[in-house]
């Protein structure tokens, strides 16, 4: 007998799990967490690799066929490579992808190849060393940039995620587009979101419209590309360029109607929307001795109460302080 699928009350099937394996990161990007004073989870509070594997197996049995590994920075957690190797063997799991800040070692890149992981997103908000330093509060541009080209030459499908913000990196937008002229990679420009671990956030001046208009002013002819129905980005290509670029309205949330994602945080919090409250904590249930059937029922209930979109989810969840993206897992 097959297990029930994860279908919400609006008829959307959730087939994509974003799994945060840690809330820790070796960078301190301003839009993700404060420079100091982060209260990271104790090791015992994190889902163990065995607990994550158990839950991922459960999700895949309920129709999830893609898992994205996020953090924090996934590769700061010891034991991540053996976990990914084991994860890749789950029946029904068609694809594992990874989001990283690019501080990968050559050895880790080779290991990902051996496991069969071929798609990786790198968070990179500037192509200028000084701006990179100001944004990440770390002086590691050269090593990150080198990792990107090692990934490309090793045959990975690489996406560069750039969070666009006034007075931070506007001058990087066009250089990122130009990077797609010679390299077969995908750049994704994101609207800034309020998950910075503080109580301070203003509506971003650069929405998806402003980003597009800025690019079109320099590239009047743009080819709009066909995207998957569940894609969060609207994708384009400058004619003759090898790569592509896309714009993700992450604050405007125009893509919610086709969202197929569910999120599991590093401490077990299950969210059906990035902007909403945790629906339940699966870590706590596992440690209280919940059976697989009981876990399935809890997951199904969470999905059944999923809000229509990110605005409705946000309205149901008041927080004086914006949680850190490193806690939410992106």
Automatic annotation (TrEMBL):
It catalyses: GTP + AH2 + S-adenosyl-L-methionine = (8S)-3',8-cyclo-7,8-dihydroguanosine 5'-triphosphate + 5'-deoxyadenosine + L-methionine + A + H(+). Pfam families: Mob_synth_C, Radical_SAM. It comes from the Bacteria. Its cofactor is [4Fe-4S] cluster. It is an enzyme of class 4 (lyase). Its EC number is 4.1.99.22. Residues 9-225 form the Radical SAM core domain. Keywords: 4Fe-4S, GTP-binding, Iron, Iron-sulfur, Lyase, Metal-binding, Molybdenum cofactor biosynthesis, Nucleotide-binding, S-adenosyl-L-methionine. The keyword Transport does not apply. Coiled coil: none annotated. This is GTP 3',8-cyclase. The gene is moaA.
């Amino acid at each position: 007998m097959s297990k029930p699928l994860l279908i919400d009350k609006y008829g959307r099937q959730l087939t994509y799990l974003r799994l945060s394996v840690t809330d820790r990161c070796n960078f301190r990007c301003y839009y993700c967490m404060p420079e100091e004073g982060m209260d990271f989870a104790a090791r015992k509070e994190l889902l163990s690799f065995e607990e994550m594997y158990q839950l991922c197996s459960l999700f895949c049995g309920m129709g999830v066929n893609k898992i994205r590994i996020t953090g924090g920075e996934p590769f700061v957690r010891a034991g991540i490579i053996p976990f990914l190797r084991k994860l890749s063997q789950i029946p029904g799991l068609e694809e594992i992808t990874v989001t990283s800040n690019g501080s990968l070692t050559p050895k880790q890149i080779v290991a990902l190849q051996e496991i069969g992981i071929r798609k990786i997103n790198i968070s990179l908000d500037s192509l200028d060393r000084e701006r990179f330093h100001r944004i990440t509060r770390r002086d590691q541009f050269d090593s990150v940039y080198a990792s990107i080209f090692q990934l490309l030459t090793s045959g990975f499908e690489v996406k560069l995620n750039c969070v666009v913000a006034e007075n931070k990196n506007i001058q990087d937008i066009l250089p990122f587009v130009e990077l797609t002229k010679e390299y077969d990679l995908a750049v994704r420009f994101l609207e800034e979101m309020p998950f910075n671990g503080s109580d301070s956030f203003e509506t971003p001046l650069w929405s998806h419209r402003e980003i597009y208009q800025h690019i079109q002013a320099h590239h009047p002819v743009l080819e709009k590309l066909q995207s998957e129905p569940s894609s969060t980005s609207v994708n384009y290509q400058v004619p003759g360029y090898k790569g592509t670029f896309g714009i993700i309205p992450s604050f405007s949330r125009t893509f919610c109607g086709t969202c197929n994602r569910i999120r599991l945080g590093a401490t077990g919090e299950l969210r059906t929307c990035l902007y909403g409250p945790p629906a339940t904590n699966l870590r706590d249930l596992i440690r209280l001795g919940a059976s697989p059937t009981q876990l399935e029922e809890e997951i199904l209930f969470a999905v059944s109460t999923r809000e229509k979109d990110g605005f409705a989810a946000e309205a149901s969840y008041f927080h004086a302080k914006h949680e850190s993206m490193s806690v939410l897992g992106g």
